[in-house]
Amino acid sequence: MKTIWILGAGKFGRRAVHKLHSSQPDARIMLVDRDRSLLEPFESGSVETCAGDAIEYLCQHLGRQKTPDWIVPAVPLHVAFEWIKSVLKHIARVKKLGIPQALINHLPCIPAHEPGKIYISLADFICPDDCCEPDKYCTVTGKPRPYDLYQKLSQIRIENFHPVVIRSRQLAPGLGGYRPKTLFEALDRVQSADSPILLGTACRCHGVLDAFAVIGHQ
């Protein structure tokens, strides 16, 4: 039986629950949100719930030997960045940096309301909820995809930044998640890097990226 943690019980988290119940009815689902009222509709069903902060939940319950099969980030945060920052806070300081302009010039970036962060999308339209993310083409336009975004980000070589990219994989049409081991692999790469980091989470078409440096880590 697969175990899946869904972080966030808002619109996207609720949609994730319904999609997973349809595609993987035997999966054990844990739904986490700090707003208990959003969890109440699920408490009498087969979904387990936890009222609490999503990043704190990861820090308290996620371990290298104690993990779910999949994590679905459905909160308005870059979960990988916030988790790594929380894990490192007792041994180092994470300092946000500006996104290199050369990167902004070469990717289809969407401004974020937070310094040192950008969103990236190959689509200039709202994608359908049931997109199956084909290998080669867009389901809306029918045109070939120019590249896979997660791969493009991992190949960044710009201004001495070190790219660390977590690939989001489809668990159901229109629903992405990643295995916990990819979070720990990203953490290890961040800790071993001797230069600033560009940390991204991306599927084939969409992603989020944070620029930062780790200060004081030995």
Quick structural summary:
28% of the residues lie in helices and 28% in strands. It has helices spanning 11-23, 36-39, 54-61, 79-88, 101-106, 149-154, 180-192; strands at residues 3-7, 28-33, 48-51, 70-73, 93-96, 109-111, 117-121, 162-167, 169-172, 175-177, 197-202, 206-215.
Topology:
Elements: E1 3-7, H1 11-23, E2 28-33, H2 36-39, E3 48-51, H3 54-61, E4 70-73, H4 79-88, E5 93-96, H5 101-106, E6 109-111, E7 117-121, H6 149-154, E8 162-167, E9 169-172, E10 175-177, H7 180-192, E11 197-202, E12 206-215
Parallel strand pairs: 1-2, 1-4, 2-3, 8-11
Antiparallel strand pairs: 5-12, 6-7, 7-12, 9-10, 11-12
Helix pairs in contact: 3-4
Features:
218 residues; alpha/beta; Rossmann fold; 2 domains; six-stranded mixed beta sheet; 12 strands; 28% strand
Q: Please give the number of β-strands.
A: 12
pLDDT averaged residue by residue: 93
H/E series? EHEHEHEHEHEEHEEEHEE
Q: Give the percentage of residues in beta strands.
A: 25-35%
Proportion of helical residues:
25-40%
State the low-pLDDT regions, or none.
Answer: none
**The number of domains:** 2
What is the overall number of helices? Answer: 7
* Distance between the amino and carboxyl termini: 40 Å
Largest sheet: 6 strands, mixed
Oligomer state equals single chain
Q: Which value, in Å, is the CA radius of gyration?
A: 18 Å
Structural class: alpha/beta
Global morphology: globular
Could you explain the architecture of this structure?
The protein is an alpha/beta fold. The chain folds into two domains: 1-77, 3-Layer(aba) Sandwich (Rossmann fold); 91-218, no CATH class. It is built from seven helices and twelve strands. The strands form three sheets. Strands 5, 6, 7, 8, 11 and 12 form a six-stranded mixed beta sheet that branches. Strands 3-2-1-4 form a four-stranded parallel beta sheet, with helices on both faces. A two-stranded antiparallel ribbon has the order 9-10. Strand 6 (109-111) and strand 7 (117-121) form a beta hairpin. The longest helix is centred in the N-terminal third of the chain and has 13 residues, at 11-23. The chain is globular and about 50 Å long.
